[in-house]
Amino acid sequence: MGTTIRDVARAAEVSIGTVSRALKNQPGLSEATRARIVEIARQLGYDPAQLRPRIRRLTFLLHRQHNRFPASPFFSHVLHGVEDACRERGIVPTLLTVGPNDDVLRQMRPHAPDAIAVAGFIEPETIEALAATGRPLVLIDLWAPGLRSVNIDNATGAALAMRHLLATGRSRIAFIGGSAAHYSIAQRAIGYRRAFFEAGRLFDPAYEVTIDAGLDPDTGASRAMEQLLDAPGPRPDAVFAYNDAAALAAQRVCIARGLRIPDDIAIVGFDDIPAAAHANPPLTTLAVDKEALGRRGVELLLAESPERTEISLPVELIVRASSQPAGSPAFDTATVQES
């Protein structure tokens, strides 16, 4: 029989709880006491992994607003990545969708999770409640201070899209955004504004519009595009939208108004959902490895002492006909990657 935590406690002449705190690197002990206990455990051949309860069940928590088209194509792929990573490790994942007024802890109780993965936007109060449970927790496409998180490089992706549009000669580039409470959307807005600064150009706030929170994303993006087209002053010659669904809605409005894409106005989205490649014209966008987000989230969740608790994944610019320079030869897809 191997060495137990009781053996270590007896040799160190301390309680089992003190040994547990020392080996888990928890507060409440002096560094000298901690170091002495760790050394005794090493000499006795005690494996600290015995202190870690095995994770057998994981709840994948998704806000109800993400569990409907057009958001679902993105998060369904993230869920696939989570499921694959769990399957490889013998973990059973379950999906729980919640709304802003739901008692999340009560709804989660029947799932009896050993760990939790939260994807996309969720209310800060819910994050605090989940963290307070003491269960291993990871945020995917979401960020909060002090918690493990996996995100794509949203700001860099937005800047990459903007540099592409600027390089094609566009100067009046509008941004259709959503609620800044969404971490990814806020970061994409930062990248949009930063690109003007990097290019030595002035940012005109009149070209930045936010979708009305009371509308569904498709209707909201359509109205935002109409607002841009009906506003006084020069019409935008390009639009960068915070995601593909918004970009496609904007593109439909422009076509209905008789505008030629990309000659009169270029359109760029973000996420590379399947509909982007099949649009007419096909949509330029930032490709995201959505399944990798899910896989890396599980890996970070299970890591004992990760070197980084915040991971950022690269994006890839997929250039399609919605933004090709006027008069240039037609092409289907070209890629530029930035990590």
Automatic annotation (TrEMBL):
GO-annotated molecular function: DNA binding
Domain (HTH lacI-type) ranges: 3-57
InterPro entries tied to this protein: HTH_LacI, LacI/GalR-like_sensor, Lambda_DNA-bd_dom_sf, Peripla_BP_I
Pfam families on file: LacI, Peripla_BP_3
Keywords linked to the UniProt accession: DNA-binding, Transcription, Transcription regulation
Official protein name in the record: LacI family DNA-binding transcriptional regulator
